[in-house]
Amino acid sequence: MNTQHFLIGALLVASLTGCAAVATKTNTLSDERILSETGGVLGLSPSELTLVERRTEGVNTYVTLKASNGKTYACTVNGGNLFSFGMTNPPVCNAR
């Protein structure tokens, strides 16, 4: 019975790891779309934002933005991949 539980657990971990890899590789978010969506949440136009850093892990894209007023923001955009059919949830942004 313990071997069966181990195998089921290993299969679950492997499938979740595979899903995260597929989500990362199928991310379709352009820099322009990220600036547009995060700008809407921050109340700024995309032209007022500069994308400083970007990384995608699984279904989330993490970005650092610099506004023309000098403020820096850390934002998370969830979605934009095969599993979400390209759709995203509203970004979550925090001032740094």
List the helices and strands and how they pair.
Elements: H1 2-25, H2 31-42, E1 49-57, E2 60-67, E3 72-78, E4 92-95
Structure overview:
The chain is α+β, with helices and mostly antiparallel strands and 96 residues long. Helices cover 38% and strands 29% of the residues. The chain has a four-stranded antiparallel β-sheet. A hairpin with a 2-residue loop joins strand 1 (49-57) and strand 2. The radius of gyration is 17 Å and the shape is elongated. The mean pLDDT is 86.
Summarize the structure.
Helices cover 38% and strands 29% of the residues. By secondary structure, it is α+β, with helices and mostly antiparallel strands. The chain has a 4-stranded antiparallel beta sheet with strand order 1-2-3-4.
Percent in helix: 25-40%
Low-pLDDT runs of 5+ residues are: none
N-to-C span: 50 Å
The helix count comes to: 2
Can you write the helix and strand succession as a string? HHEEEE
What is the general shape? elongated
List the keywords.
96 residues, alpha+beta
